Amino acid sequence: xxxxxxxxxxxxxxxLVTVAEKIRIWYKIPGNMPPVPLxxxxxxVYKSSAIAKKNSLARDWFTIWxxxxxxxxxxxxxxxxxxx
Length: 84
Hints:
mainly alpha, 84 residues
């Protein structure tokens, strides 16, 4: 992956994680956060593009995080905001 692309992915990851943390803490939604996409090595250098495409779990994991943020937003209606 090109360095510019890696930095863009990292920025998106940080934004998703930050938004999820803030929503979960503000509304006191119980549960654990899923592993971050970096855990699946999207920053790793592969020997060929075919191997990189085979190891696309990290890319797909961003979809999991978008779904998690969506879940938190819908769950926020059931919990009252934190008073702090």
